[in-house]
């Protein structure tokens, strides 16, 4: 059975040497083609982090605003690391509709022909964490629509309508099924890979050094 938010501590293209490396058959990577990615694409950078997160989870918030932010600024931009976000809404009730809204936003981005690293999805995800304490199951759709309308070029009303109607709930299920198969029972859970090799699983809000050491960054 899936638990909730944890406390503290708790086919690629080219690797670091320029040679192709294939993504391993790890359950956390199932359905990876449909996931939002902060570039490079999976397999194009030496290191890969696949994170299962819940927008309502305080430890996810701490991870996003701490070590993940530094990993992205220091290593994603340098082409050394890829980060893949997967939803696992198991903490507070508003996390499920927020995750559905993220999937609907991602679908709208793709329909418009934008890439998996388009800012609308990632900005909304960051907004959920930045304003986590202000969200509830009663206001999540309203606040999501307000953010998308003011901060992105997506059709906010259409995205939220899709989320309300759970049109992309199948994609939520792809993530939760992958989490179950990978034994991710709490959020956040991160699966770390380097050049085709699974390195380790990190659960909870850990330090930047824990990630960097495991990934040899």
TrEMBL record:
Residues 1-44 are annotated as: Disordered. The lineage of its organism: Archaea, Methanobacteriati, Methanobacteriota, Stenosarchaea group, Halobacteria. Keywords: Electron transport, Transport. Belongs to the glutaredoxin family. Residues 7-18 have a biased composition (Gly residues). Signal peptide: none annotated. Residues 44-192 form the Thioredoxin-like fold domain. InterPro entries: Thioredoxin-like_fold (IPR012336), Thioredoxin-like_sf (IPR036249). This is Thioredoxin-like fold domain-containing protein. The keyword Transport applies.
